[in-house]
Amino acid sequence: MKIAVIVMDDFIINALVAGIGLALLAGSLGCIVVWRRMAYFGDTLAHSALLGVALAVSADILPILGVAIIGIVLASLLYWLEKKQDLSNDTLLGIMSHSALALGLIFLSVAQKQGSNVDLMAYLFGDILAVSREELVWIYAGVVLVLSLFAYLWRDLLSISVHEELARTDGVSVNRTRFMFMLLLALTIAVAIKVVGVLLITALLVIPAASARLYSKTPLQMVMLSMLFAMLSVVLGLGASLYWDAPTAPAMVVAAAIVFFVSSVVRSRR
Amino acid sequence: MEKNVLLAAENLGLKRQGKTILSDVNLSLHESEIVTLIGPNGAGKTSLIRILLGLSEASEGKVYRRADLRIGYVPQRTTINPVLPLRVRDFLQLGARYSDDEIAQVLEEVGVSHITDSAIQNISGGELQRVLLGRALLKRPNVLVLDEPAQGVDIIGQQALYKMIAAIRDHHACGVLMVSHDLHLVMAATDQVICLNTHVCCTGHPDHISEHPEYLKLFGDALDGMAVYSHVHDHEHELDGAIVCTHHEDCSHRHG
Question: Which residue, A2, A220, B22, B255, is most buried by CB atoms nearer than 10 A?
């Protein structure tokens, strides 16, 4: 009995630590996503993650690595296509997003038929309660890497979010900064896949940032508040899911949405 | 290249999808000189500016930029992304870090020190224009490039704006390259007018240009049916619209 309690504590702590790591990334990068209207781009990267999982299964590496690799490849491809194509950006993303999702589903089903033990639902909606120590190490390697690069790029990212043309005349390399941010987003998706899965990660990018916008006067304030709101959503969601035995990732997203609606109401009453 | 030339274009040409946008454009901007670029819509004014700024490439010709060139650029009437919380103060800090004193000083110079801590999305179009000008000045530019600064500003406002730009030129000793589609109000302060319509139609001192046949061909028809009304004012307006009496003590109009 006592052993069971300890084991349970352990996986809850792992889940909490993983969730907070993701919240730090999603909260901060989410602000840029909101400022630059990249929600659909985030969706596209997330949908491609299933391909990454399929790749990881066939190459027998950790899913987080497969997802990171595919995300980086897709981000580069999108960056290149954006410059070349006459199609509008959202059409391009529409094509890539759903083709990547469909391809991923097919590859995973092939892998399943060949007898590999892949739980599709775990990748669509995350499986935070099954995060292992090894995965936790990889998640935090991602968190540290992405947050340091984010801090390094912060001024340029802010400049191009405010006004690309002005940033360019200030000597900011707009294209390089955009591309770097796409890569950071790809890495964030990789961190997120175990925690909230491919279908709900965009929610964690967008909703806490939207809540934070209501109370911020400066960009940095918004980033800090957004990280705080994201952590709050993760903790509330995890708690609710344990208490009511609800699926964890959806509970986190619902918690984020409740935080947003409560903030909106509080804000509009003042 | 002469020593006091800051920025010059030599035989500049631009083709986009087979269409000629600029051809054989020559111009030069000297120290403390105000050059006004005029021309109808689609004449290639903004394309030319973008090439001079290094934002896009020309298909032919050369751009000369003096080695110590610092360009302050004020874009065409623009909006700032509304989802980003940003005070005027933060906006001015984007390019580089400036002290509170520097920011206060420059906002004072462009006449909008009262909005330092306002959200940039909440200020008026005219105020934003001045903030953008202030932002350009913070870089201590030796060339100031203004794309249609008078767009959407009424006549009185334009006058004040042009006076301010002339004062900035005198104070900072920078060359000014300005795009405009309005000749008449620019003429007072400008040293050289360049009339562009894909190629340079004509150039000259503003006193001469309105008699130039190429200019008349371009704007003659459009100006037909319009007349210039000569106001006889006995007062002036300050920036905030307040009336300032300029004649005698017992003026008859009401003061606001």
Answer: B22
List of chain B residues whose C-beta atoms are within 8 Å of the C-beta of residue A34: 83
β-strand partners of B28: B8
Under the banding of pLDDT at 50, 70 and 90, the label for residue B187 is low
Which residue among A159, A216, A217 sits closest to B94, beta carbon to beta carbon?
A159
Q: Could you report the per-residue pLDDT of B63-122, keeping only the tens digit for each?
A: 888 888 888 898 887 888 888 999 999 999 887 889 989 999 999 988 888 999 999 988
End-to-end CA distance of chain B, in Å? Answer: 54
Per-residue exposure over B75-107, b if at least 16 CB sit within 10 Å of its own CB, e if not: bebeebeeebbbbbbbbbbbbeebeeeebeebb
Task: Indicate whether B249 pLDDT > 80.
Answer: no
- Identify the CA nearest to B208 among candidates B224, B223, B194, B222: B194
Q: What is the pTM of this model?
A: 0.81
List all residues of chain A from 123 to 182 with a beta carbon under 8 Å from chain B. Answer: 155, 158-159, 161-163, 165-170
Q: Write out the two tokens for B208.
A: 């001469």
CA distance A211 to chain B (A): 12
- Concatenate the DSSP letters of all residues of A92-134 into one string: HHHHHHHHHHHHHHHHHHHHHHTT----HHHHHH--GGG--HH
Query: Is B57 near chain A, with CB under 8 Å?
Result: no
- Note the pLDDT of residue A145: 96
pLDDT for position B1 = 66
Strands laid side by side in the B60-65 sheet = B19-30, B5-16, B60-65
Q: Nearest CA to B200 among B184, B189, B185, B215?
A: B215
- Say yes or no for a CB contact (<8 Å) between A35 and B84: yes
Average pLDDT (A181-195) is 91
Structure tokens at B22: 């600029």
| pLDDT tens by residue, B8-60 | 888 888 888 888 888 888 888 988 888 988 877 778 888 898 899 888 888 88
Contact A166 B83 (CB under 8 A): no
Q: List strands edge to edge, sheet with B199-204.
A: B71-74, B143-147, B175-180, B34-38, B192-197, B199-204
**CB nearest to A217's CB, from B53, B87, B135:** B87
Contacts of B87 in chain A (CB under 8 A): 217-218
Rounded Cα distance between B157 and A124, Å, is 58
- Nearest by CB to residue B84, choosing from A162, A169, A170, is A162
Please indicate whether, in this complex, the C-beta atoms of B81 and A35 are within 8 angstroms of each other.
yes
Q: In this structure, are strands B19-30 and B5-16 parallel, antiparallel, or unpaired?
A: antiparallel
